[in-house]
Amino acid sequence: MDDRSDADAPGLAALDERGRRALESLAVSGPSPEAPTAFDVRSSLTGSLIGSLPRQTAADVAAAAARARTAQREWAATPMPRRSRILKAFHDLVLAERRALLDLVQWESGKARADAFEEVADVAMTARYYANTAARHLADRRRRGLVPALTRTVEHRQPKGVVGVIAPWNYPLTLAASDALAALAAGNAVILKPDSQTPHTALAVRSLLVRAGLDHRLFQVVTGKGAELGPPLVEACDCLMFTGSSATGAQVASQAGARLVAASAELGGKNPLIVCQDADLGRAVPGALKACFSNSGQLCVSVERVYVHERVWDRFVPAFARAAGKLRVARTMDWEADMGPLIDPGHLAKVDAHVCDALGKGARLLAGGHAVAQACPAGYAPTILAGVTEDMDVFAEETFGPVVAVYPVSGEDEAVRLANATAYGLNASVWTRDARRGVRIAKRIHAGTVNVNEGYAAAWASLDAPMGGMKASGLGRRHGAEGILKYTEAQTIAVQRLVNLQAPRGMGQETWARALVSYLEVLRRLPGFDR
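The structure assignment produced for this chain is given below.
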């Protein structure tokens, strides 16, 4: 249902027209299942209908997997330079079509243009990174053999086969493309299940990959409800990458584990930010603002807890609250908005419920705390709470919205203890003028990524380093060598020369055992063989 009024209809109609032109420019088309029923996709920005897509079934997933397996065998034999050329061509297309991609991402998800641009830049960078490094990551590696000069042992990497990717709505371009690019570079086929609220962006990724030269069977998109398509996708694939909530991630991993299929997952977070007493507040305030409110707080690595040294509390917190109050929340495809609306009114209700629960139990409101009418249908003001206690929902539960709680701390030890007092461990941020202190604190925090004097982008965009969560925040890693090797099987091939590894004819087993012991004692004394 379209929520627009007569007053704002002309402006929203212009946004809808830009969205439709983006679909046309990107040549977006839906899948064609055998027995489709349709579901509607509406814009989180304007509330209007984007289009209707097939509500696919388990049979459609199985058919996609069969097509993918046929194509994957040929793709696995494709030389790496050919794979790299396709990823580079995709990189070029993403940048060439960036305006259409920005419009589509905004139209479908509602986010601000600067947040959409982060997705475009991230996908282009990831494509370039794996195009340039996949050959190195996947190269055969000589390993030390049992007998020097007589045992030649090599580690090979073979693709898993068909990789299933289940992507959420909050980063519909990044999370549809980035994990898939690594899997494709490793020689796999990919079946992507995007969230039913943002499927057109995923279909745009498929269109650009096909334009870049990829066989259409190697990257297929299945559309419909996650509860209906997730289980058959896990049953059909040889490896799974899931991004979403910790609760759903546990279910997916359990199903994959029952099949002995590898699963990797980036899950929820309740990420902390620590402001040390020597922090440069001129950097820390805008840095915390971005860490907390990027993508309207709908970001797994965004900050929801801020621990401020008591000696800078009276300077940092008022400045942080004033800056949050100046952020502009609006629905637009231009660059001036700091935040867009939340994904839908249902999610707004959850975010507001966390705030109301906290305020009802005694928390103090320092900024925000209300819906923003001009960002309909689901705009919410950036919100800062103080006095949050353990009996409040916002204390430990992931809000996944533009809501952050601030807490005073007496020093480094208390800040680290409180930062670690959570079931999650995805991302963290430390602000200090002393980089060595920052690294020392970072090493004590139980999180997969920790940024010093940055919120999240420094670690996320360091694509050569692994990214992922500890504890309830995930399994495995994306990015870097781990991000591509997880889509492969390690195979060891050992060639034995001249002698067999068994007792020679005429030698008893006990004599052979003594000879082996003597051999091991010699190896222990040789340089390099004690490692």
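Interim note for the steering committee: Residues 500-531 form one domain. Residues 113-138 form the longest helix (26 residues).
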